């Protein structure tokens, strides 16, 4: 009697599974294109189902970010972190690797928040052979045992296994996604397949939903603050060497900004820098220009300035807006800036010389 009951139960399970497979195949056929339709009673491939679900989750995240008007860099973070989460990584980070500028971490997992990330990025730019291998080959690189791999030069890293993934737009690398495990792991063949699918899908999401290719490849904007970057400043200087119009060049530096990163973490520091930059942009005219010179240093070019008292008014306005406290996740941040300025052509013959003079004046104020 017991055997009969067991047999009946097994038959019911088999029928349920078989019937479910047929239903799934029917629904898949309804959705798929004619040329891609599977044969009538073939259940969908598990790999294909996982890939399609993964792809749809990327688009769902992108659409949610757009609906909630999330800033582009935060939206990109939400998309890129999907893969490390799927791979059950212990930590991850996204390193921006421009060929003609300083490398920097754009975002990272919370457990890396209190590391000296600016210093680490500079160290990797010099000695990071594992990252350079990813950039040169434009291929995924998996290092199973970092201690035994000749490309791995990070002496104080906790990573035992590491995966480097090139993030590309229009076949140009914008950065490398670092996926780290604190114990040795294996990446299965299917996971490697999924990673390659992920790269295709991220490229598609970026181009289709956010159009970030202009931001990363052809734009002169700093990714974090949306101010112009150092490259844009150099371009501006070269284009205005013979410009004799009256301008003011302001060089500013945030006071003790490193303490914000040390006390509250780089995430809070980055958010504060974004807010403060936006405030400064709102306190100058639309045809004036603000450039991120490096770290927490900025250069502002004010057009049509003729008198010192006019620039003094602008500087006081900038200082006032920066002093207003920032609240971020129940953290109160109060900051200040040191500023130096130089008038062109009254005090310097061109923008390049004016930046040098304004920089020196800024440091004199900081010392005072």
TrEMBL record:
Residues 245-368 form the GGDEF domain. Signal peptide: none annotated. It comes from the Bacteria. InterPro entries: DGC-Regulatory_Protein, GAF, GAF-like_dom_sf, GGDEF_dom, Nucleotide_cyclase, Rev_trsase/Diguanyl_cyclase. It holds the Pfam family GGDEF. It comes from Petrotoga halophila DSM 16923. CDD domains: GGDEF (cd01949). PROSITE patterns: GGDEF (PS50887). SUPFAM superfamilies: GAF domain-like, Nucleotide cyclase. This is GGDEF domain-containing protein. SMART domains: GGDEF (SM00267).
């Amino acid at each position: 009697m017991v055997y009969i009951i067991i047999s009946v139960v097994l038959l019911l399970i088999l029928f349920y599974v078989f019937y479910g497979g047929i239903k799934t195949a029917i629904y898949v056929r309804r959705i798929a294109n004619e040329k891609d339709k599977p044969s009538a009673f073939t259940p969908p491939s598990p790999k294909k189902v996982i890939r399609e679900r993964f792809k749809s989750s990327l688009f769902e995240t992108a659409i949610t970010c757009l609906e909630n008007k999330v800033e582009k860099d935060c939206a990109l973070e939400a998309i890129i972190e999907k893969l490390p989460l799927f791979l059950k990584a212990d930590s991850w980070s996204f390193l921006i690797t421009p060929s003609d500028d300083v490398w920097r971490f754009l975002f990272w997992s919370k457990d890396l928040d209190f590391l000296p990330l600016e210093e680490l990025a500079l160290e990797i730019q010099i000695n990071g052979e594992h990252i350079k291998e990813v950039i040169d080959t434009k291929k995924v690189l998996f290092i199973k045992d970092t201690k035994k791999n000749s490309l791995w030069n990070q002496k104080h890293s906790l990573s035992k296994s590491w995966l480097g993934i090139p993030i590309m737009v229009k076949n140009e690398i914008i950065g490398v996604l670092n996926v780290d495990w604190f114990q040795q792991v294996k990446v299965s063949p299917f996971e490697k397949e999924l990673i390659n699918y992920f790269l295709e899908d991220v490229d598609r999401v970026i181009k289709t939903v956010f159009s970030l290719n202009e931001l990363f490849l052809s734009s002169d904007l700093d990714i974090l603050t949306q101010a112009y970057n150092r490259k844009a400043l150099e371009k501006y200087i070269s284009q205005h060497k013979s410009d004799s119009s009256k301008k003011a060049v302001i060089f500013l530096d945030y006071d003790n900004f490193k303490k914000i990163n040390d006390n509250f973490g780089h995430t809070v520091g980055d958010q504060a820098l974004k807010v403060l930059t936006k405030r400064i942009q709102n306190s100058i005219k639309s045809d004036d220009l603000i450039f991120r010179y490096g770290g927490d240093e900025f250069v502002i070019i004010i057009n049509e300035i003729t008198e010192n008292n006019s620039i003094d008014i602008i500087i006081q306005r900038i200082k006032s807006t920066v002093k207003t406290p920032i609240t971020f996740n129940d953290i109160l941040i109060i900051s200040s800036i040191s500023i130096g300025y130089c008038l062109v052509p009254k005090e310097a013959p061109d923008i390049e010389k004016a930046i040098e003079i304004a920089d020196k004046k800024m440091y004199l104020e900081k010392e005072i």
